């Protein structure tokens, strides 16, 4: 059963009807049907080569399906609406080098905005705002080639977010961010998703990133393997195995403890597991103190 | 005979950069045949340092000793064979492959270093086998591969030239968890079985912790920390400066350490979930 947490919101941002795609002789996607409501945050998971990136590229028209229909905000994705649709979709690749062409980070953020034919003043405002959000102010006048991998990813994120798309697709786009900034970035995405009803599709192998989404779609071999709430699916070991994901440490610990006859339930959340362990240890030590008296 | 950096400094001169020191009097020493990890916040100099290891960048000042080779600032000549003895896998491995097929890419390195065709083929085959690339993959164009396969192919292409030092920049970025573990295990075997030195730049500490001997943290072009993994975990200041979070295993470990009366030295390097669960069980039994 597909899972739609915002089911009162009937508008679909993205509809895929019976999509098939082959590359060479290999079927990449097999008769895939999916609906993503506006404002939903969907995480796509699957092992390398499962069809995740191809699916994302179909949605913004970088690839064309041999069969089936793609509808974005009620409009069919074909030549007539192509540019209209593309301007609503922000797409970020794993490798940010492929999307830089300006001489400075500022130019790069401005480029997309100029293409949207925004007023100069508004462009400046947006650059400031998004550079601030992503901690890029000190880097605005640097040449993109002189930035480190993580800094480039931040700059590319700012350029895409500044265009204020209604759909944001992140294809492994946080793979080089350091872990503390990645947390800030997830918080920022949550904020954009909740406050501006931004539809988000994240492709990732990172459990934390997958768990942050409203809905998790696991792809395998070009078909949907599972579709549901992240905290439910991420506890199913066979799904983790098929998608070549590693169970989070907190969950591994819960399971190891159960093997020792200590059942604290299953959770993906470190803090929750720690609290349970603390409670368990302190109640035991209390009983131990009492019985020794 | 390992790798040492003596007072090595480098600044980017081109473009909009204002002669900022990317490497600021770096002193470093690592042993050969070890698995070395370099961490640091974006812009701390990690990639710059790596590129000094095979002469892609030349230091402004200071000396680098690599095995029995000495790299001095230009105009001194680079040691012969430097680029063969030190293999570099870039951040975006896919940009390193440019031939029609993966097989041709694997042959390119050895042939370029003037070995015979037969030798090149046997080296390429050994590297492909080691990385688990089968014939079907070797016959493909690099563009037909998935991201995990591309990464493996790029590493195999570097291994085929039989370098003594293998340097990799963010090798696990965008790989799935199983591929990440597999790749790190393979690299570790390069140290333990082939006595090669592996140097990895990463921000994914979890990936390297079970394997690495030494971690070096850079901060603003200087060495902030150099030591064993468990020593790094005691340095919250370094983790913060490097933009790293304490891996879950250590977070649990330190949070429960006092209640459980744990001793880090007894848990070896990396407190795995089974080890920690056993320690919790033992502590609870002790209380009963």
TrEMBL record, chain A:
<keyword id="KW-1003">Cell membrane</keyword>
<dbReference type="GO" id="GO:0005524">
    <property type="term" value="F:ATP binding"/>
</dbReference>
<dbReference type="InterPro" id="IPR003439">
    <property type="entry name" value="ABC_transporter-like_ATP-bd"/>
</dbReference>
<protein>
    <submittedName>
        <fullName>Energy-coupling factor transporter ATP-binding protein EcfA1</fullName>
    </submittedName>
</protein>
<keyword id="KW-1278">Translocase</keyword>
<comment type="similarity">
    <text>Belongs to the ABC transporter superfamily.</text>
</comment>
<keyword id="KW-0472">Membrane</keyword>
<dbReference type="InterPro" id="IPR015856">
    <property type="entry name" value="ABC_transpr_CbiO/EcfA_su"/>
</dbReference>
<dbReference type="GO" id="GO:0043190">
    <property type="term" value="C:ATP-binding cassette (ABC) transporter complex"/>
</dbReference>
<dbReference type="GO" id="GO:0016887">
    <property type="term" value="F:ATP hydrolysis activity"/>
</dbReference>
<keyword id="KW-0813">Transport</keyword>
<feature type="domain" description="ABC transporter">
    <location>
        <begin position="14"/>
        <end position="246"/>
    </location>
</feature>
<keyword id="KW-0547">Nucleotide-binding</keyword>
<keyword id="KW-0067">ATP-binding</keyword>
<dbReference type="InterPro" id="IPR017871">
    <property type="entry name" value="ABC_transporter-like_CS"/>
</dbReference>
<dbReference type="GO" id="GO:0015087">
    <property type="term" value="F:cobalt ion transmembrane transporter activity"/>
</dbReference>
<dbReference type="InterPro" id="IPR050095">
    <property type="entry name" value="ECF_ABC_transporter_ATP-bd"/>
</dbReference>
<dbReference type="Pfam" id="PF00005">
    <property type="entry name" value="ABC_tran"/>
</dbReference>
<dbReference type="GO" id="GO:0042626">
    <property type="term" value="F:ATPase-coupled transmembrane transporter activity"/>
</dbReference>
<dbReference type="InterPro" id="IPR003593">
    <property type="entry name" value="AAA+_ATPase"/>
</dbReference>
<dbReference type="InterPro" id="IPR027417">
    <property type="entry name" value="P-loop_NTPase"/>
</dbReference>
From TrEMBL, chain B:
<dbReference type="InterPro" id="IPR003439">
    <property type="entry name" value="ABC_transporter-like_ATP-bd"/>
</dbReference>
<dbReference type="InterPro" id="IPR003593">
    <property type="entry name" value="AAA+_ATPase"/>
</dbReference>
<keyword id="KW-1278">Translocase</keyword>
<dbReference type="InterPro" id="IPR015856">
    <property type="entry name" value="ABC_transpr_CbiO/EcfA_su"/>
</dbReference>
<dbReference type="InterPro" id="IPR027417">
    <property type="entry name" value="P-loop_NTPase"/>
</dbReference>
<dbReference type="GO" id="GO:0015087">
    <property type="term" value="F:cobalt ion transmembrane transporter activity"/>
</dbReference>
<dbReference type="GO" id="GO:0005524">
    <property type="term" value="F:ATP binding"/>
</dbReference>
<comment type="similarity">
    <text>Belongs to the ABC transporter superfamily.</text>
</comment>
<dbReference type="InterPro" id="IPR017871">
    <property type="entry name" value="ABC_transporter-like_CS"/>
</dbReference>
<dbReference type="GO" id="GO:0043190">
    <property type="term" value="C:ATP-binding cassette (ABC) transporter complex"/>
</dbReference>
<feature type="domain" description="ABC transporter">
    <location>
        <begin position="3"/>
        <end position="245"/>
    </location>
</feature>
<dbReference type="InterPro" id="IPR050095">
    <property type="entry name" value="ECF_ABC_transporter_ATP-bd"/>
</dbReference>
<dbReference type="Pfam" id="PF00005">
    <property type="entry name" value="ABC_tran"/>
</dbReference>
<keyword id="KW-1003">Cell membrane</keyword>
<dbReference type="GO" id="GO:0016887">
    <property type="term" value="F:ATP hydrolysis activity"/>
</dbReference>
<protein>
    <submittedName>
        <fullName>Energy-coupling factor transporter ATP-binding protein EcfA2</fullName>
    </submittedName>
</protein>
<keyword id="KW-0547">Nucleotide-binding</keyword>
<keyword id="KW-0813">Transport</keyword>
<dbReference type="GO" id="GO:0042626">
    <property type="term" value="F:ATPase-coupled transmembrane transporter activity"/>
</dbReference>
<keyword id="KW-0472">Membrane</keyword>
<keyword id="KW-0067">ATP-binding</keyword>
